[in-house]
Amino acid sequence: MKETGCGAVMVGRGAQGNPWIFPQIRHYLATGEVLPPPTAMERYEQMLSHFEALLAYKGEYIGVREMRSHASWYTHGLYGSAALRERINRAASADEFRSIVRDMMDKAR
């Protein structure tokens, strides 16, 4: 920002599945230090938190289906993520979704 004189930065899709981007940007602008990316476990925990909020707001039927696309962003680049997304895309209930994610969390430990 100092180099170009711009007044703002548009994050856009960089925030999808990556809510850590905002504290990372703030930290970098304040210190010049790049924070490490979130661990797989942190991603899974945040995904479940997001899922629970979505369920509370939209209900189970819509929440499960909408979370499928969000899960794709959260898991992008993680080991085994293609198989995980395939399982998530078939999840028909909140319990099934949670079970799939918790299974991956157990494997990530």
From TrEMBL:
InterPro entries: Aldolase_TIM, DUS-like_FMN-bd, tRNA-dHydroUridine_Synthase_C. Residues 1-102 form the DUS-like FMN-binding domain. One of its GO terms (molecular function) is RNA binding. This is tRNA-dihydrouridine synthase. It comes from Megasphaera elsdenii CAG:570.
